[in-house]
TrEMBL record:
It comes from the Bacteria. Coiled coil: none annotated. PANTHER family: INNER MEMBRANE PROTEIN DEDA-RELATED, TRANSMEMBRANE PROTEIN. It is found in: Cell membrane. Belongs to the DedA family. It is a multi-pass membrane protein. This is Membrane protein. Keywords: Cell membrane, Membrane, Transmembrane, Transmembrane helix. Its main location: membrane. The chain crosses the membrane at residues 12-36, 43-61, 156-174, 180-201. The keyword Iron does not apply. Residues 38-168 form the VTT domain.
Length: 217
């Protein structure tokens, strides 16, 4: 009768579940390692877009409901991930065979070492996969619970409210913006993947820049 829901397509998720879908997806993406592939960035932006008065598509969402669902899902998910990490430690990651998940764990650990707890927890919100892995990793590394909670709330609200309101602002200013939904979502996904691409490029350049120093002490 109904069409199957595509969990990788933000529009499909929102059409099927509305604001509740936002909460569930963000909880899974930030709290459960199996949710690392879910489209958090594009989901938030699309949800904001579909709240705008100028969006004339079949799906229309209420902005207060979306904001509340997004904040609740991501904050509860991150805290759950942290406590799972405290209880299960690195064994949680060791059980997974997903290469991207292990690469994300390496980047998350690098973030914590390079930026310190507060900055790393906030920055990780804006990097796909890293935002999934950093929460249990912070628990496994025994980042103080109070520190983690304070900064995951800060980062979570910046991420969810920022992307949702950005989508809403664009939808309010551009008539019939839903016609351009696919290219807009593609742009959001591309921007969200930029930090990963920069990390990969930097990692590839590292050996080339370090060799001369090793040859000439």
């Amino acid at each position: 009768m109904g069409q199957a829901v595509d969990v990788l397509d933000a529009g499909s998720l929102l059409a099927a579940f509305g604001a509740l879908g936002v909460a569930v997806v963000l909880f899974a993406e930030t709290g459960l390692l199996v949710g690392f592939f879910l489209p958090g960035d594009s989901l938030l932006f699309t949800a904001g877009l579909l709240c705008a008065p100028g969006a004339g598509g079949a799906v229309h969402l209420a902005l207060p409901q979306v904001l509340l669902a997004a904040a609740a899902g991501t904050l509860a998910g991150s805290q759950t991930g942290y406590w799972l990490g405290r209880r299960g430690g690195r064994a949680l990651l060791a059980r997974s065979r997903a290469r991207k998940l292990h690469e994300g764990a390496a980047r998350a650990e690098e973030y914590l070492a390079r930026y310190g707890h507060a900055k790393a927890i906030v920055l990780a919100r804006f990097v796909p996969i890293v935002r999934t892995v950093l929460n249990p990793l912070a628990g496994a590394l025994h980042v103080p619970a109070r520190t983690f909670t304070l900064w995951q709330i800060t980062g979570g609200l910046l991420w969810t409210l920022g992307l949702t309101l950005a989508g809403y602002a664009l939808g309010s200013s551009v008539p019939n913006v839903d016609r351009y939904l696919l290219p807009l979502v593609a742009l959001v996904v591309a921007v969200s993947l930029t930090p990963i691409a920069l990390e990969v490029l930097r990692a590839r350049r590292r050996p080339a820049t370090s060799d001369p120093e090793e040859q000439h002490p």
